[in-house]
Every structure is written in structure tokens, then in C-alpha cells.
Amino acid sequence: MLDAGSHADAYNFAYLDEQTKRMIRRAILKGIAVPGYQVPFASREMPMPYGWGTGGVQVTAACLVPEDRLKVIDQGADDTTNAVSIRRFFQRTAGVAVTESTPEATLIQTRHRIPETPMTEGQILVYQVPIPEPLRFLEPRETETRKMHELEEYGLMHVKLYEDIARHGQIATSYAYPVKVEGRYVMDPSPIPKFDNPKLSGNPAIQLFGAGREQRIYALPPWTEAVSLDFDDHPFETSKAPHDCDLCGARASYLDEVITDDQGGRMFVCSDTDFCAGRRAEGHVGRLGEAA
Amino acid sequence: MYVAVKGGERAIDNAHQWLAEERRGDPAVPELTIPQIREQMRLAVNRVMAEGSLYDPDLAALAIKQARGDLIEAVFLIRAYRTTLPRFAGSSPVDTGAMAVDRRISATFKDLPGGQVLGPTFDYTHRLLDFALMAEGAAVDTQTPLGEEGGGDRETRVPHVTSFLNRDGLIETADPSDATPPDLTREPMERPADRALRLQALTRGDEGFVLSMAYSTQRGYGRTHAFVGELRIGTVLVEVDIPELGFAVEIGEIELTECETVNQFKGSRTEPPQFTRGYGLVMGQSERKAIAMSLVDRALRWQELGEDFTGAPAQDEEFVLMHCDNIQATGFLEHIKLPHYVDFQAELELVRKLRAEAMALQEAAE
Fold first, then answer.
1. What are phi and psi of B246, to 5 degrees?
2. Do residue B74 and residue B113 come from a single domain?
């Protein structure tokens, strides 16, 4: 981690050197040209550990321009420690403006969520991806899975989903739920809850996915179709906690469960902090909220 | 009443400040200096240089100090620094035959041209705690070695042991190549990897991982039947071609450990019976790593030599190459302590739903 201010001048705008950014931009463009295809790229060691969002950070660094307004969320929230740390990193190394407001941001880096407020044309959403390969847990070898994508051989995935139904009566995948992009590549949407999957498809924003440790970038250009895998008789369903937000009363937002005491007390709150705060500012009050 | 967890920023600042205090330890004890670490913790410095892929003893010492002695953390600091450095040139291949050797031993021949040079080794020390070292400040008894002053000289070339075997066609020849080796720090690693790329990954791989992989081949998981043909440690010159000058100039010297194993080989469908080679080359004095690397290198060569794949982990290129990097491994391992409550919530809902259905079925059955 950089100390406040002191080292900022020693590094290029947004940390990465221009050669590296060019290399990453080429991978991004290729990803956009072939939606859902995983483009190998020469991921760099970043000053934060692998697993903390090094792929997303590199994609963000390659996209940022000085006029950008950056928002960073982790678990939907702007104030989680890792979101704070990444936001600060770019404040220091790029000096860009930052915001917590989804509509005001030009670029949003996210871990595990898609914002509740719909994205608009011209915005970029950058996902941090741990394991980019949707087939990885069915086939551990990269040489094999690349071949399977080449041949569009996704039978194994359907068998897995079928076995879920046979065993549990439903598809037992609740996050990182695979999608098929424009009828071609099966893609891992990163570990977002399947609640967020419908927002992937036909989204007006550019969606970029960066996996640093695994050295892959992939993309969904605006208005791209991304269909969650399912069967005719077992259609894809989203899921969330069957409650309303206890702070803002939202009925349709994704909720975090918060344990409030050791007597089984709990409350449900929007995981998207900006969305929740916005609703409260508008005067919406939930079960345990206080009027603004 | 639930209050949203705010103040992540202040928490991070405070954590960093506490960390700095912990690093310093008791202020009554004098602070470590970088030269002290560089000179007296030299093998730790070597490991950080090797796995950090950056030959700079001072920076490695700084990284060790900053990382409070956590060597993987120190390697990480060096890697993150290294990746920002511009590339001016690639050096010519170093000539280990011209190494000024401090240590050079062969386990396959009792004596040989160039001689057996024991050098500074733990090998024949008795592992008894030397309490004299606890007496701080006392002048340490450093006698000059009997007979001669140590240190190799660059005047005499020390021939490689494998070249003796080579003369009789008893060992495979390694075809020399002028191809530019791939650079896994600048290109995404594509598999199958060639041998140069495998060696590159192994030399910066985690010492413990490479050691365990090598050990597993000795215990029967992909036997390699290795003899240490030669192990040498010393300094070599690094030369760089300057296009404006039209010739190579010396830019410095680095310490290397090189290990060549000679492996039994009964021949295969494609190759006659002869000895085969495993190769290890590591920055600094890093014997254990160099030997381990050469065993793993040999195990990974099964395909090229027409051997059978026995399913041993050390033979499995993807398994070895994708898991030998400790910075990748530690990052991904430790990231599970980051918040995952969104995904956990999704799992919670799923398990609740599955349980409700299972209970309903059970009740219906009763």
C-alpha cells in the first residue's frame, strides 16, 4: 500500500505504465469483439495481493482517463475495507474524482454485485473475477477447457445442472451462475448472486471482467444478450431473502442478513448502500429505519 | 438498532499504524539496518531475490525488514516493485562454465577436473545450537580457512561434469538454441509450456512447493533416479549487447546456484538407453531449491523422452506450473478472509429452501 501522497509522483497515471495499459486495452478490445471469450493477457503483479481484485484494478487502470468519476464497491457497499482501499489507490495514483453515486460514476469497479440502480450508456462496469473459467470445477485442466470452448462442447455443464435437479429438485448454484453469451460462449459472471444475472443481459453499459491471477480478460459489450443456463421445464429463477429492506423498505433489492443479537434477532438491509441511502433520502422508511 | 459499518478508511489507517509499531518491536532494542540483513541474513535475502525474480540484495533486505521477516510477503514486495521497472535490454546467456566457483561438488565422481570444492556449506556441521552466537558484541572468531584463502578465481574454466559423460554419448545432448526464451512476466503463460518456460516458472516458484514436488519423485511418485552430477555456486558475469557499440559489455556479476542431475534412463520407444538430465538454476546461494528444481524439471520431461505418465503430481505440468507461485497461491488463499456475505447470503437462502423442501417431504412420508 502506498503511503499518503509521498510516492504518488513516482508512478505513472493510474499506476501502470503506458505499455502495459496498451497491452491490456488490446485484450479488452479483443474481449469486446468476441463477447464472453476469455482473452489471455500478461497480468502484472500489482501492489495488492492476488484475490483482492488485481484483475479488476488492471482493467480499471487501463480504462481510466483524468476526467473519469470512479465508484468502487465490494459486496454492493462503498464502505467495505477493500472498496475503500481500491478507491484510495486510484485517488492517489490517478487523482480522479470519486463518487458513491451509481448514476454519477463513469466507471464502477465491483466485487460480487451489480448496482441496483440501472446503469446507463457510456458507463463502464468492471468486475473482479477470481476464477474466470465456468468449466473449471468440472474440468481442472486449462488445456481441456479451452478446447471445450473452442468446440462449443458444453454438455458437461448441462449434465452438472441436470444432476443438481435430480438430486435437489432444483439447480443448486446460487452465485457465479453461468450464462451463455449471444448463443456462443458460456461465461462465468464472477461470483455475483444469481439475483443479479438478469442485469447482465441487454445492459447499456460496457461490462468488463478482469481475472489477474488467472491472466484473463473478457467482456460484454452494451446490449449483449447473456442467458442464464437452464432447462425448459426448470427455468432459471432469481432468489433473494424473502423480506423487505429494514432501513429503506425496498422490496426488490438484494439483501444482506445482519445478526443483531445472540437471541436469534436479525434484520435485512440492502447490500447496495448507495441505493439504500438514496431511497432513505427520498423519504422511504423500512421496519427499523428512522425517517430522514 | 443496527448501525451500518462505516469508517473503513480510519480502520485501515489505524491498522497500518499498528503494523508499523509491531514491525519495529521494542524501541529499546536497536533497529535492524539493511546492511545487517543483507550480510547476516544472506540466505533469506537470496530466497527473496530468487522468488522475487530480482537480483538486488539491498532491496531484498529492505523487503525482509518491511515484511517483518515474512519471506513470502517480502517476495511480494519485490515482485510488485519489479513489475514497474522498464526493460532496457536482455542479457546474453550467462556462462556458468566460466563461473568463479565458491563451491562445486559432484556426487557421481570421486575426483574430477576442477576438483571438489566444499565451500561454505552446512552439510557437515553438527546441528548444535552455538550459544557463543548469543554473546552479542563479542568479536566473532573468524579464522581464515587453513591452507588457502577461499573464493574462486575466474582464470580457470571449471568444466561441467555432464560434458565428460557427453564425450562417450552416455548422456543426452541438450541442443543449444539461440531462440529468445519466453518471459512469463510479460506474456500470459500458455500451456503446454516449453522447457525454458517451465524452468523459468520453477526458478521463481516457492521453495517449499518445489522441494515437496521433488521429494515426492524420490519416494516413488514419478521416479527420476537422480544423481547430483554437479552442484556449483559462484558468481558469473552478466553481459549486455549494446547496439550502438556492436559488442557486449559487462554490466555486473551475480551469484548463482546451478545443479545438473544425471538420471538413470533405460531407454524408451523413441530414445536409446543413456543418462538424461535435469537442470536447476537459481539466483544466489540456494542449493536446496536448485537441486529440487532439477528433479522436478526431469520429472516434467516424461513426454519428450517417451516415458509413461504415471499420474504423479510432479509429472503433471499444469499442476506444477499453476501452483508453484507462492504469490499467486497466498493471494488466492488469503482472499477468502475478505467479505463474502453476498454469496454467503445466496447460499443461505438456497440451503433454507432445500431444507424446507426436504422437511416437507419427510413430514409427508410420516
1. 85, 10
2. no
Low-confidence ranges of chain B (pLDDT < 70): 1-7, 137-155
Residue B191 within any structural domain of the chain = yes
Residues of chain B in contact with residue A130, where contact means CB-CB under 8 angstroms, are: 332, 335
What's the rounded Cα separation, in Å, for the pair B141 and B39?
17
Question: Which residue among B52, B82, B112 closes a domain?
Answer: B82
Shared domain for B191 and B223, answered yes or no, is yes
Nearest to A288 among B2, B335, B350 (CB): B2
Nearest chain B residue to A112, by CA: B342
The minimal CB distance from B335 to the residues A51, A140, A143 is found for: A51
B342 vs A1, A52, A113: nearest CB: A113
The pLDDT tens digits for A62-104 are: 999 999 999 999 999 998 889 999 999 999 999 999 999 999 9
ipTM above 0.90, yes or no: no
Tell if the CB–CB gap between A17 and B84 is shorter than 8 Å: yes
Q: By the 8 A CB rule, do A193 and A35 touch?
A: no
Domain that holds residue B27: 9-82
pTM reported for the whole predicted model: 0.87
Q: Answer yes or no: do B148 and B272 share one domain.
A: yes
* A 144-163 near B (Cβ less than 8 A): none
Question: Between the CA of residue A122 and those of A114, A223, B158, what are the distances in Å?
Answer: 16, 12, 65
In sequence order, which residues have a C-beta less than 8 Å from that of residue A78 and are 6 or more positions away?
A71, A72, A84, A87, A100, A273, A274
**Cβ-defined contact of A44 to B83 (cutoff 8 Å):** yes
Give the per-residue pLDDT at A3.
Answer: 44
What integer pLDDT is reported at residue B1 of this predicted model? 41
Are residues B62 and B164 both part of a single domain?
no
In angstroms, the CA B202 to CA B191 distance is 15
Residues B74, B219 within the same domain? no
Give A1 to chain B, closest Cα distance, Å. Answer: 9
Q: Please indicate if any CB of chain B lies within 8 Å of the CB of A180.
A: no
Classify residue B1: in a domain, yes or no: no
Smallest Cα distance from A82 to chain B, Å: 8
Considering its fold, how many domains does chain B have in total? 3
Mark whether B316 and B346 lie in a shared domain: no
Cell numbers given for A247? 432501513
